[in-house]
Structure to design on (175 residues):
C-alpha cells in the first residue's frame, strides 16, 4: 500500500491555487490509518513519552491514536477561546496574517517529554507556535510528527532549526 495514494487532493480549496491535501480518506481507510500511526510512533517506542500534543483539529484524531499507542496522555492545542480552564496563548503566522492558539497551563508539566502531532506541515508557522507554547511550560518537545510534508514551503526545516526532530511520512511537491 502506498500511503500517498490514500490521501485525496482537492484543487483550489480553500482558495484558488491551493492543493488541499485531505487526510479524511487516509483516516477512513483502516489499513492506511493504522500504518500511519504505527510508522509515526515507531522511533519512539520505549522513549518514555509522557504526553502527545495534538493541534486542532486533524491533529486531535491522529494524536489521540498516537497517544494510545505510546501509552501517553493527550493534550489539545486549540484555536483561541475554546478551552475552559486557565490557558497560555501564542500568536502564529498563517499564509495571510496571524492567528492565536492556546493550551491549558496545566496541560503539560515542567520536564515532561512531549510529541507534537498534526496532519500536515507547510510553512511551519502553526507547529512553531505549538513548540513555543510547550517550551514556555518547560516541556521537552522530543519530536514533531506529521503525516504530510510540503518540503518546498520549508516548515520541517524551520522546526528542526528550533532543535526539534521532525518525522513525516509522505511528501508532496508544491503548495
Ligand atoms: P503551516 O502553519 O503553514 O505549516 O500550515 C499547517 C496547518 O495548515 C496544518 O494544521 C494543516 O492542516 C493546514 N494546511 C496547510 N496547508 C495545507 C494543505 N495544502 N492541505 C491541507 N491542509 C493544509
Amino acid at each position: 500500500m502506498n500511503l500517498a495514494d490514500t490521501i485525496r487532493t482537492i484543487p483550489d480549496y480553500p482558495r484558488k491555487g491551493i492543493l488541499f491535501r485531505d487526510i479524511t480518506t487516509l483516516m477512513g481507510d483502516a489499513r492506511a490509518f493504522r500504518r500511519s500511526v504505527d510508522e509515526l510512533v515507531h522511533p519512539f517506542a520505549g522513549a518514555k513519552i509522557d504526553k502527545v500534543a495534538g493541534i486542532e483539529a486533524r491533529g486531535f484524531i491522529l494524536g489521540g491514536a498516537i497517544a494510545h499507542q505510546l501509552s501517553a496522555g493527550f493534550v489539545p492545542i486549540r484555536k483561541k477561546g475554546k478551552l475552559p480552564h486557565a490557558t497560555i496563548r501564542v500568536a502564529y503566522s498563517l499564509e495571510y496574517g496571524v492567528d492565536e492558539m492556546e493550551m491549558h497551563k496545566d496541560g503539560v508539566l515542567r520536564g515532561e517529554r512531549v510529541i507534537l502531532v498534526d496532519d500536515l506541515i507547510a510553512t511551519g508557522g502553526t507547529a512553531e507556535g505549538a513548540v513555543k507554547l510547550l517550551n514556555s511550560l518547560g516541556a521537552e518537545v522530543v519530536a514533531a510528527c506529521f503525516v504530510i510534508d510540503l518540503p518546498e514551503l520549508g516548515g520541517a526545516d524551520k522546526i528542526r532549526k528550533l532543535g526539534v526532530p521532525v518525522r513525516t511520512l509522505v511528501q508532496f511537491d508544491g503548495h
In short: Residues 18-21, 55, 58, 118-127, 155, 175 surround adenosine monophosphate (CB under 6 Å).
